[in-house]
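For consistency, the fold was encoded as tokens, which produced the following:
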Amino acid sequence: MGKLRDLMDRDLQIRGYSAGTRYQYLSCVTAYVRHFMKPPDQLTLEHVNQYQLHLTQDRKVDWQTFNVHVCAVRFFYKVTLHRDWDLHRIPYQKSRRKLPEVLSTQEVRALLEAPSNLKHRALLATLYAGGLRASEVTHLRIKDVDSQRMTLRIEQGKGGKDRYVPLSVRLLAMLREYWKAKRPQTWLFPGQDAQKPLSCKCLGKICARARKAAGILKPAHPHTLRHSFATHLLESGVNILVVKKLLGHRSLRTTEIYLHVAKTYLEDTPSPLDLLPDLKNALVAGKG
């Protein structure tokens, strides 16, 4: 793409898109252009629809990946190339709601105790205790831990939003033990290069090793601890609006998904079958 790629990146930066989103959008448009091996300003709406079919039938991408490609191509033609196209002709796929995988409190404890490395234990504990995203925990700085106000400051989380989450007393003790042993300077959890934060890829490997060592059969990724944090709070009676704020969700609808997996809501809701009078006796006796 060359010059057009640079122009699109400029447009994304001007509008305040994060580095991660810029990378995703540019990668999507580059893949689209390579598919046709033509300059993108010579491609038409029909080409875009053909590429959408290719994503669905040939590459078989999930709906989330498909929609990222749609966002990227729409931005490219509308903003960078100033095409006056009817964007409804570049449709999104219907979203599908999948319930998150959640660990029990016993499984979380086993996962957090599994690593022999103190840094890894502190890292996973921070992830769970604050309900943080992977990129948020890896980008925590020493100054973000406020032991006076007992808060963790999440700076520029998803959507470019700052927020605070409570600092657990247990977590503070663990972080103090970790700091005394490792003495990190700027980043709370630095990578091999102390001047850079730990990568999300490395965090994923740490979580995978801990899951294996703990003997947990469920999938357990860094985001699983965030799901578990939200579900366990709801199960302990915390108001869903508070959980929404702690997670940094824009919409309550996003938080409501955890109501479907919280065991308290399942246990406290009787089946209508159990409310029918004398049905059990009738079934046992073979009547009706």
Remarks:
- The two ends are 72 Å apart (CA to CA).
- The longest helix spans residues 19-36.
- The chain has 15 helices and three strands.
- Residues 35 and 51 are 8 Å apart (CA to CA).
